[in-house]
Amino acid sequence: MARAPHFRPYRSAASPSSEPPFLSAQILDYEHRSKRFGRHILQGRSPGPGSVDLTSNDYLALSGDPWIIRGQREHLAARGRGQMRSDVFRHGGGILRRFEQDMAHWMGMPDAVLAQSGWKANVGLIQALGGPEVTVYLDMQAHMSLWEGARSGGSRVRPFKHNDPASLEKMLKRHGPGIVAVDSLYSTNGNLCPLADMADLADQFGALLVVDESHSLGLFGPAGAGLVAEFGLTAQVPFITASLSKAFAGRGGIVLGSPRHLEYFRYTSLPAIFSSALLDSEAAAFAATLEVIRQADGKRSALEDKAAYLRAELLDLGFDLAGSETHIMALQPGDEELTLEVREALEERDVFGSIFCWPAAGRGRALVRFSLHSDLPLSDLDRVVDACDGLRRQFRLSRWRGQGIRSRSAA
Ligand SMILES: Cc1ncc(COP(=O)(O)O)c(C=O)c1O
User: Fold this and answer.
1) Best of 145, 186, 193, 326 to mutate for ligand 1, by most ligand atoms within 8 A of CB?
2) Whose CA is nearest to atom 9 of ligand 1?
């Protein structure tokens, strides 16, 4: 009988002394920064069955939708998962291509190409469009994947002030044409981008505008087609990107633009070449999801109403929501230790939000984010209000970073 091979655990797990010094230095630095509070600030409790869970981006509550599950199950049963290969080897029609065309048609864009995630869509697009001679103008709060795309392409990065067209204009005047990248809806604070102003500036200075619609797709615009469509800007926006892991409740990403630009993206962006493509069975789920989302006006308006209710209540309690106009809103203690205490105080009241701290938020700008979804019971919203009322009594809000900055929605 063959003997089972004997595996020894890698010895570095045992002690820092057996690690190469560069690794020890990095890990010790991480441990020093992250374990100040006894554990990493992101490590909290998990919500239970009766908790109010505001940590998910499944904004239309579709992850368990029976129609979508049936669509994917039938596809899986009849055809299996699909091909395990890079997207550069996909040719012709098929369910992935049909879904791309349906998405383009729905969003009013010329064409679309799928990516494995929103991260890979953004990194790949900005990397492929960029280069050492290209300037990439980034909103200071643009998603990290857009920054990483600029870095990966070796582009020059010029950040401009968050949601500030005047700041962008100053930069464009100084540094000339390039790529302007913004989120349509910012995921930490729920602000909307002044898209029309950004599109006009891009036009005026001959820049290419890239709009990341990850948090708005499915929720805004005609039949949920997004904010670019809502503002009638499809002719002015050459590229839209999105994660399909928010309202689409799956795993994937997408880039929309002209067929010429998208062909270039497909064959030159590193994630498209060097990472396996989405599977047919995933496209089957997305195709069914698109059908549901198109007809989800009821869910969209329920979400809008619920978000407006909670925003108004929290503003009334004296929280500054830093201009949230949407279903995403954040309590902003700023200091990390204070943010951890706030999160724990919420968890004690069985309300769960997501902590954002460096590098997902600026240093000293830590926050607890609430992501609402359309199917939240009103009683859950009231539990959030009660919990926040408790926080107001427990903490001195005047110590919080956001306090005193008048929010746009309160104006
Ligand atoms: C604005 C934005 N863009 C892109 C991404 C990346 O998307 P994914 O999770 O599909 O990689 C996210 C997700 O965190 C996001 O919030």
Assistant:
1) 145
2) 118
Task: Let me know if residue 201 belongs to a domain.
Answer: yes
318 and 290 in a common domain = no
Q: Which of 411, 286, 314, 298 is nearest to 370 (CA)?
A: 314
Residue 33 has pLDDT above 90, yes or no: no
Under the banding of pLDDT at 50, 70 and 90, the label for residue 407 is very low
Q: 243 C-alpha vs ligand 1 centroid, how far in Å?
A: 5
Question: Has residue 408 been placed in a domain?
Answer: no
Around ligand 1, the residues with Cβ closer than 6 Å are 117-119, 122, 143, 145, 183, 187, 212, 214-215, 243, 245, 253
| Same structural domain, 196 and 301 | no
Domain residue limits at 318: 38-60+297-399
Longest dimension (CA), the chain: 78
State the distance from the centre of ligand 1 to the C-alpha of 52, rounded, in angstroms.
23
Same domain, 265 and 320: no
- Tell me what the pLDDT averaged over the chain comes to: 93
Domain total for the chain?
Answer: 2
Question: Is residue 102 a contact partner of residue 137, using CB atoms and an 8 Å limit?
Answer: no
The CA 259 to ligand 1 mean position distance, Å, reads: 23
Which ligand 1 atom is nearest residue 243's CA? 10
pLDDT at 404 over 50: no
DSSP line for 88-132: GG--S-SHHHHHHHHHHHHHT-SEEEEESSHHHHHHHHHHHH--T
CA of 352 to the centre of ligand 1 (A): 20
> Are 214 and 113 part of one and the same domain?
yes
